[in-house]
Amino acid sequence: MHVTRSLPARFSFCVAVSSWLTVIGCRDTPPPAAPEPTKPEIARDAAGGDVIAAAAEAILRNGCASPDAVAPVPTWRSSAAPPFDVAIYTAHPDDEAMYAGGTMARLAAAQRRVAFVSMSHGEGGRLLERAADGGVEERRDYPRSHVVLVRDREVADAAARVGVTHAHLYPADANVDDAYTTSCSDALAHWQATLPGGLADALARLVADVRTRRPRVVVTLDPRDDPQASHHGHHKAVGVLAEAAARLAADARAVARGQPHVVEEVLSMAPRDVTADVVVPVDATKRVSMLEAYGSQFTREGLAVDPIAQRSVESFVVRWRAREAPISPERATLLALMSVSR
Ligand SMILES: [Zn+2]
Fold it and tell me: How far is CA 284 from CA 100, 131, 216, 291, 299, in A?
């Protein structure tokens, strides 16, 4: 265990944006459009058990509590060399940059293969635009199709800036980015009610993604909160789902695309007031470069004075490691991947 310093206290971006100078991808949402009904992708094992659906039910019961009641931590078994070293799962495009952009840049520079997956397209939010007088306007009047166009272009640019791969978990018309709430349970319940196939389908998509990417390390948001203490329910909820999916991916009974895969280590982006297990020194300019790709969400002036955007470390909590995984107990896999001395 090694830690280090806590990040400076700061106000919540998401619930109390004090000015246009400090804005983040947290959004009020316009009324949701009804998602297209699609056939749920439900996993069933040979005996008729429904591992993923049962996990989704347990998550709905437990909210953001420990995933131990949902699925066990897998036991390590060797597999073919994974195509990805690290896979990062977040709620909105720009979460990855703000909370782990420096680490991603560092991993990519060390020739590690990194992918990040955004559950939504940020389709429920607003766009910032530069007004004729040089000020910044917040636009909420665009159709979602335009918002998605802009946000998809930005996330592709952000990924290219640090040399990592990006994908969305859902199509934009699933409207994942709806119904802003600070409650993890409410966010989970909303997704259960509105996403095609509910949480079971969300888990199946995540399990399939993990099995396809076969990462050694999964990084996601923390179910307790994010590093900014923004209290965003989507952030917490995606943390619960990604962590559960990383466990279920190893379970052959969980029927989703791909072969079972054991993730060595799952880390969360350390909440502001939580002691971190892994602290990565980073080049803040790399993170800021990624964030600047999101011109509809941040301004250069805002980023320049944003303590989270400018911080020189990124902190993570080890949520679990695969049982009996052949890694040194005193050395986190994420750090080993970067050859960072402790
Ligand atoms: Zn977000």
Answer: 10, 28, 25, 10, 16
Q: How many domains does the chain have?
A: 1
Gap from CA of 121 to ligand 1 centroid (Å): 10
pLDDT in tens, the chain (342 residues): 333 333 333 333 333 333 333 333 333 334 444 444 343 344 444 444 589 999 999 999 988 887 888 888 998 887 665 689 999 999 999 999 999 999 999 999 999 999 999 999 999 888 999 888 888 999 999 999 999 999 999 999 999 999 999 999 999 999 999 888 999 999 999 999 999 999 999 999 999 999 999 999 999 999 999 999 999 999 999 999 999 999 999 999 998 999 999 999 999 999 999 999 999 999 999 999 999 999 999 999 999 999 999 999 999 999 999 988 877 666 778 888 887 544
Ligand 1 is a single-atom ion; what residues have CB below 5 A from it? 25, 91-92, 95
Expressed as residue numbers, the domain containing 61 is 51-338
In the reported structure, the alpha carbon of residue 335 is separated from the centroid of ligand 1 by a whole-number distance in angstroms of: 25
Is there a domain that residue 175 lies in? yes
C-beta separation of 262 from 77 below 8 A: yes
Q: What angle do CA 146, 156, 242 make, to 5 degrees?
A: 100
For residue 73, report the distance from its CA to the centre of ligand 1, in Å.
27
- Domain-embedded: residue 302: yes
| CATH assignment of the domain containing 294 | 3.40.50.10320
* 256 is a domain residue: yes
Q: Is residue 324 a part of any domain in this protein? A: yes
Cα(91) to centroid(ligand 1), Å: 6
